[in-house]
């Protein structure tokens, strides 16, 4: 339920304004060097406090409380705790009884009958800090297999990159993929923010490495099925494509990727054929909605079904796609690493080789 | 692995050109009347042989071999067998050693080291007949809860419906949602077919019913996460949206659905808020790629990595989105029914009521 | 729910007096030669119709309907169907409304509200034919790893073997482990049968092979946890031990198995230490209750809660432990094979080696 | 892997001598009052430091870090942290390279290639503190359903209770079920301890309540299957019975429990028929081995396969069955509560009633 993956499994717990956010990562092969600095650096990348993101100042210190001994993974579950330091005991009176439009307030109360009204509780995107921590360890594993993951912001409020440059995205304050378009995108974000509004965006996430070939499990746990599950289930995501987004308008003769002795001649399929990694780059487009929390007055109701106008104050990202891109990258790392482990017992020849060499 | 769902679970087995396609549906509450005619009718709807689909003539007779006694479900797993009657012992020599572009041939051989080259084997969309059979039973369960599912073809090769009419889709030979646009869509299909080519398409799938409110499980099994998993994992699907497809270009003030005492005033969210059903219609757009099997000559390689030109003869749908829409509808029924059952122990008050009334 | 295992998974469906018993075995590594004769021979061994077992004459022909192509496993789920040929349309009137003592009649009706009264329906031990078919394939896989499984009947009605001889058990009509005690055990069975009664028994199941070392997954899926789940969950089993049965009366100094440079000096632990295979033989004692179906008159009630005397006619084993031993052996094979596959991604060095050699 | 249960799920992490032991309990119905004092009291009961148990002085303070808001469960996962306060930075040199007989040292190193030699690491029984914390919350849920769980020590080193008195067990320092036999049992423990040895024991665990009727899921997740999995998987457990332990020596006419209009006339089956709760008391006998850690010199080897004599100093229970009984009780509570929730969607009539009353 609160778990992602089958062999490499991330489970999380904790609420936005509770004591902490926790993650438990199981199935990390024993003997992996755990680089605590790299782990913290990933978490910091998600935090990225600047004019385009959130002014909520979290320390976000990751504590590794289990599963690592003398610097390496032991095969036991790795416990990751991120205490919430900056939880203001603020006044929740305006949201305690009102349903914020675009949030889970209404649906969560309907489902559970009780609601943690402090910042969305369990449904808050703050939980993603545990995904990023888990993803950081997944990346350490992928590095051993020569697989890399990348991400960046492709569009903001409809303003699209013209060139894709993942190395620029790494240093951009909005993780923009295009240095030339970036100023226009930044302007759009600041304008929306100034008007008490927010903007949506599209994130591009990729993985590359020869060992992507063959990843994906049969039939209801295909590579694309799992990617669909993790990305569509991420807070704020409402759409996605794997490979060429105009796919549904194309003809087969234009869309199919021809094979040649040196490999695929194009990659419209985005690295997945028949639910299995083709060895070509995994290419995923993730569509984020505009941040639900806006300062502008909105029509809503309270828990007594009375209408009201709600203006939200607080520390909200004007564009969740920005920090969302880091989370997407982490999720892709977790998924690919899980499939890399699941793939090992697929062929009898591999099983034989494994047991012969022990 | 080959299983969909957690409480209501569909597992399938069987290959396109093997003995049969089988499905096992577990978790159907005991006492549900199983209407065998309705079950067969759903399977027939997927078959729909006409000029726009496939000339492969399968009888597709569903046999219920377990789990039903004296007309009702017993709580035991329901076994569903569909024997393959029309498996021609044809000549596979041209595909046996060639990788068909756009198919799982290359990736499946890389993964498994062996390949059932007869019509794609396990990776063929023929497996979806078991999903439709399972979905038919899910619909019988949903009917008890007042939930309905619908589907139709929105666009074909980029030609989009201007009006959405699910009742028209039911009788249209291409399940088109728009009576006026339908002829143009049909023409596009026949033109591609005549040219030995294929077209992509977009399917719209919906569910409605008050009890959609509250469906969806926490955090890695949200309603949208699961929908992402089943639709992105369906053969030929490469993209999807839940709710408004232009979401990433919008501002929060335009996208958020305001609440009023009589309900949501719009449904850009497509019926899912925070991963939980909002009670508004579930609205899902599913982007299908053009059929991979085309008659036109394509560049590819054989299993010895030698280049060749491949022309596929055979009984292929020129547009997989058409019959795919029926499968999408079945999948949505399976997902929603599963969540409806999973939802029951969510609140202590419900648990108490259940055990008090026994 | 109806599935056993995590990587190698057996799911079953079908009822005792329904159309068929079905099994689906997933996760068999691709490229395993499937010996259909050996598969059928295992199923025949479970059938073993003689004076000490059941006169129900089932053909028990196993049909492999998927997952095997040109003699080897393909990685796709292997469908195994055993049609019920000898289902008499007999008169069920005396059991239709009466609850047979010792059976699931009362509890299943309470749980499901409907009941398949024909021979116990889904709860019948007839389902175990699918476990034996699946186990036969698991054995083929284990053979590749040098692991063997054995079973035999240790005691019948309290009459215990004095010597353990698995090779004798193979040819004994009651699978007895002791040639000298066997006649007394047979006598006890026939005497009980003649008196319209039944007897309990204890089965010994073992596995041996160097690669048992290291099998077992962490903490709630340990080797002994899984063995506990499959054996305690088998029809008619009410108790079990792993290793020395007098364990609870012993002192640590007598019970602990000392280690020496040549291995363990004893095997009180029965091959499991800390939930992980020690490399020593797996030794499991399984306690079966006497067959619930007896001809003697028994007090019971009907579905209207009226008392009655019930005398059961029919084709019942006087001692279910006999044929149960074959099922235990199959279950052990399935469990060990599953753990052998799950074990592969445990160490980083193995993961590295796997991906380096691809 | 590190998770127990399907609807009510407990996952744990943390090592014996690491930072903390953590538990995450998912699926607790929203709205359950969480009594923090009762939670701590259960954990204290497991700790029970006295002459017959361990001198390791742990504070064992349980912190609830998520899933509870304003005193009630919210439906979010409940995080339970127990920090290890009394972890001496002691000298591990004598165990660091030696394999302790009866422990997981040898097998865990073989499996993982690395070993946390501090007190057994993840394989230590210290992890059970998280099971007891989770079990305490399960008990709060069971109380709502009128189900109670009990436990006590039946025998120690072969010295068996003659009477079963669960109320005495509650106050006994060794949780003994028989006040009269208790002194002899205590003497046996102290004698073994004085001799640097340990003793095994048998624990009796029971549950009672009308709503046990019908609990248990089909076929590989029966009530007895799950009980087998959790008890056989508990540290130190090597055998178990459900109901009458002499079952395998009895005849059917003596073993079967006759039904009468007022219920079962005996309970040899221990409350489980056909894998489903019969409504009679659940009766489970759990056989614990003697504590593996003893002070007496034992033959073993070191990691270089050299023989040596090992004498273990440290804070060990002379009889793990004593504190083990508390853990058994917690596990039974967790299992029964999980099945109580899983049982809700079994019948269509219940599903209908649930959705009608919403």
What is the total number of structural domains of chain A? Answer: 1
Overall spatial form of chain A: globular
| Assigned CATH class of chain A | Alpha Beta
The tally of beta strands of chain A, per DSSP, is: 18
What is the average of the pLDDT values of chain A? Answer: 94
Q: Give the termini separation of chain A.
A: 36 Å
Percent of residues in β-strands of chain A: 15-25%
Write the layout of secondary structure elements.
4 copies of one chain form a homotetramer.
Chain A: E1 3-4, E2 9-14, E3 20-26, H1 36-47, E4 62-64, E5 68-69, E6 72-73, E7 78-83, H2 93-96, H3 105-112, H4 128-144, E8 148-156, E9 159-160, H5 166-171, H6 182-194, E10 201-208, H7 223-232, E11 237-242, H8 252-255, E12 259-260, E13 263-264, E14 272-273, E15 276-277, E16 282-288, E17 298-301, E18 307-310, H9 320-342, H10 348-357
Antiparallel strand pairs in A: 1-2, 2-3, 3-7, 4-7, 5-6, 8-9, 8-10, 10-16, 11-16, 12-13, 14-15, 17-18
Helix pairs in contact in A: 1-4, 1-9, 4-9, 7-9
Function (chains A, B, C, D): This reaction introduces a second double bond into the aromatic ring system.
Binding site for NADP(+) (chains A, B, C, D): 46
Binding site for FMN (chains A, B, C, D): 122-124, 235-236, 274, 289-293, 315
């Amino acid at each position: 339920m609160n778990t992602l993956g089958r062999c490499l499994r991330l489970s999380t717990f904790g609420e936005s304004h509770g004591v902490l956010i926790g993650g438990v990562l199981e199935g990390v092969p024993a003997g992996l060097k755990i680089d605590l600095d790299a782990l913290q650096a990933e978490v910091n990348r998600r935090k990225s406090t600047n004019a385009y993101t959130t002014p909520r100042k979290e320390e976000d210190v990751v504590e590794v409380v289990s599963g690592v001994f003398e610097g390496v993974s032991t095969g036991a579950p790795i416990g990751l705790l991120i205490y919430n330091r900056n939880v203001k005991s603020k006044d929740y009176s305006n949201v305690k009884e009102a349903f914020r439009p675009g949030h889970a307030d209404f649906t969560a109360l309907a489902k559970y009958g009780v609601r943690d009204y402090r910042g969305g509780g369990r449904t808050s995107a703050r939980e993603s800090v545990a995904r990023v921590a888990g993803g950081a360890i997944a990346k350490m594993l992928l590095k051993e297999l020569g697989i890399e993951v990348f991400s960046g912001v492709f569009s903001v409020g409809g303003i699209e990159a013209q060139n894709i440059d993942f190395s620029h995205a790494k240093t951009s304050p909005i993780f923009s993929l295009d240095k030339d378009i970036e100023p226009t995108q930044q302007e759009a974000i600041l304008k929306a923010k100034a008007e008490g509004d927010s903007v949506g965006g599209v994130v591009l996430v990729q993985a590359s490495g020869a060992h992507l070939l063959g990843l994906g499990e049969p039939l209801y746990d295909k590579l694309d099925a799992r990617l669909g599950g993790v990305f569509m289930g991420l807070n704020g995501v409402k759409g996605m494509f794997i490979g060429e987004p105009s796919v549904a308008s194309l003809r087969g003769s234009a869309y199919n990727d021809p094979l040649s002795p040196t490999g695929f001649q194009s990659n419209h399929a985005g690295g997945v054929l028949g639910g299995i990694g083709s060895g070509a780059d995994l290419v995923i487009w993730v569509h984020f909605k505009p941040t639900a929390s806006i300062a502008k007055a909105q029509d809503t109701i309270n828990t007594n079904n009375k209408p009201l106008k709600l203006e939200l104050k607080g520390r909200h990202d004007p564009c969740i796609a920005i920090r969302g891109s880091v989370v997407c990258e982490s999720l892709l790392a977790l998924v690919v690493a899980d499939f890399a482990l699941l793939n090992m017992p697929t062929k009898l020849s591999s099983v034989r080789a494994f047991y012969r060499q022990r």
